[in-house]
């Protein structure tokens, strides 16, 4: 059974105070706190194994390589990829999407071709496509949404043309909390013969992800948003696509042979992993994935859903409250504004009460433009947040509201 108070003991930072008040950490959409086991994995590897991977004949290098490759297997299992060839380690979601935009764009897209994204994308799933547009003259089409924050599937269907080469869409919105019907979006694209990239930065921490069941062609996520370390992330890609895509960066590890005239490239997944990988972080990421697996993703999802629903109900009672994002299928994120109070003022005053929320545009300026606002206050929940913390958030928002 999911014992939230026991779970909290795994996260030392949750015991600290800010401004003399117990920390209430509600900024999990930005990054999550780390359980002791994840930090221990990093310390243990630095102290007792550390050596560069793949290149060494010596004992430590082989041990570090085994840990690194075992982590790849853990990631494979976690998202149910077919083989570890389909798991590319990157620095995070942002790098995963840039890798894809560059490499897929290089091989499969020409001037006049189109990529479909959505209104609720994070900048990291917009700007790489704009860079590609500037380089190759591709066009970007955008799936609209309704006022609840749900994508309009009929409009989505109409966006496809003979020039559509890829759909790249977020699994879960970091602003609205909307859980997009990814499986359906993928199947609609596949009916048109178009592959789909899923930005899973906010999906993996909150939902069970099975890339084969989704039939996703590509799926990206960041370690630090799923209780793992910073500096590591994943790009999953179906082998048949990755095999045909050119490398993203050149350097060590990604080559087979090099002469001054010509280089042949390494096999998957190494073709896409130039340079020394953050092998300490990959070990710790695997530890984080094991940690959430042991807790049970279904328990985590149920817990976060109940917190989200409770928070929305309670916040709605506050006069002047405007909730932003009320999709039927949403979780983990509650964005709001109260009356004329600037989101920044609300965030700053909540902070004084020990409550960490995020304010601003959340790296989704086009979404803000669609909503006609500059920013929101965002509370985002993680596996360790409690109902009492939601009560304190609500009391804090009420108190700040009364000050204005
Ligand atoms: N996509 C979404 C939906 C996000 O919420 C974020 C981070 O907030 C990113 C992409 C970028 O993740 P990272 O900064 O870890 O690369």
List keywords for this structure.
single chain, alpha/beta, Aspartate Aminotransferase, domain 1, Aspartate Aminotransferase, domain 2, 7-stranded mixed sheet, 4-stranded antiparallel sheet, globular, binds pyridoxal-5'-phosphate
Topology:
Elements lengths: L3 H6 L7 E2 L2 E2 L1 E2 L10 H13 L10 H21 L7 E4 L2 H16 L5 E5 L8 H10 L2 E5 L9 H7 L4 E7 L11 H10 L4 E4 L11 H4 L3 E5 L10 E5 L1 H4 L12 E4 L4 E3 L13 H17 L1 H20 L4 E4 L8 E6 L4 H10 L2 E2 L1 E3 L4 H7 L4 E5 L6 H17 L1
Helix pairs in contact: 2-10, 3-10, 4-5, 11-14
The site of pyridoxal-5'-phosphate has 13 residues, from helix 4.
Structural notes for this entry:
With 404 residues, the protein is α/β, with parallel strands linked by helices. The protein folds into two domains: 4-30 and 296-403, Aspartate Aminotransferase, domain 1 (Alpha-Beta Complex), CATH 3.90.1150; 39-293, Type I PLP-dependent aspartate aminotransferase-like (Major domain) (Aspartate Aminotransferase, domain 2, 3-Layer(aba) Sandwich), CATH 3.40.640. The chain contains 14 helices and 17 strands. The strands form five sheets. Strands 4-10-9-8-7-5-6 form a seven-stranded mixed β-sheet, with helices on both faces. Helix 3 packs across helix 10, helix 4 runs parallel beside helix 5 and helix 11 runs parallel beside helix 14 (387-403). The two termini are 43 Å apart. The model has no long low-confidence stretch (mean pLDDT 97). Pyridoxal-5'-phosphate binds next to helix 4.
């Amino acid at each position: 059974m999911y014992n939230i108070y026991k779970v909290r003991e795994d996260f030392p930072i949750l015991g600290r105070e800010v401004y003399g008040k117990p920390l209430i950490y509600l900024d999990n959409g930005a990054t999550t706190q780390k359980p002791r086991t994840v930090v221990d994995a990093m310390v243990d590897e630095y102290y007792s194994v550390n050596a560069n991977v793949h290149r060494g004949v010596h004992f430590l290098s082989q041990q570090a390589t085994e840990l690194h490759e075992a982590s790849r297997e853990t990631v494979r299992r976690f998202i149910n990829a077919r083989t570890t060839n389909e798991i590319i380690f990157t620095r995070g979601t942002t790098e995963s999407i840039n890798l894809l935009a560059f490499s897929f764009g290089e091989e499969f897209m020409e001037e006049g071709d189109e990529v479909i994204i959505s209104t609720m994308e994070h900048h990291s799933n917009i700007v790489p496509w704009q860079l590609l547009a500037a380089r190759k003259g591709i066009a970007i089409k955008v799936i609209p949404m309704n006022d609840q924050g749900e994508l309009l599937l009929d409009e989505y269907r109409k966006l496809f043309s003979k020039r559509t080469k890829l759909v790249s869409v977020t699994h879960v919105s970091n602003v609205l909390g909307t859980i997009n019907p990814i499986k359906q979006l993928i199947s609609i694209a596949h009916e048109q013969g178009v592959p789909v990239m899923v930005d899973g930065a906010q999906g993996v921490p909150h939902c069970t992800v099975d890339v084969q069941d989704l039939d996703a062609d590509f799926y990206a996520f960041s370690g630090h948003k799923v209780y793992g370390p910073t500096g590591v992330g994943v790009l999953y890609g179906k082998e048949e696509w990755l095999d045909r895509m050119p490398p993203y960066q050149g350097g060590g590890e990604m080559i087979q042979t090099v002469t001054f005239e010509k280089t042949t490239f390494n096999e998957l997944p190494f073709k896409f992993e130039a340079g020394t990988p953050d092998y300490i972080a990959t070990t710790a990421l695997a530890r984080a994935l094991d940690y959430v697996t042991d807790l049970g993703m279904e328990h985590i999802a149920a817990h976060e859903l109940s917190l989200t629903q409770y928070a929305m109900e309670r916040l709605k009672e506050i006069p002047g409250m405007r909730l932003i994002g009320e999709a039927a299928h949403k979780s983990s994120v509650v964005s709001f504004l109260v009356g004329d109070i600037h989101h920044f003022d609300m965030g700053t005053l909540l902070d004084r009460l020990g409550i960490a929320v995020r304010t601003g545009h959340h790296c989704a300026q086009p979404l803000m433009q669609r909503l006609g606002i500059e920013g929101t206050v965002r509370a985002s929940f993680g596996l360790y947040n409690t109902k009492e913390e939601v009560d304190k958030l609500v009391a804090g928002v009420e108190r700040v509201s009364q000050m204005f």
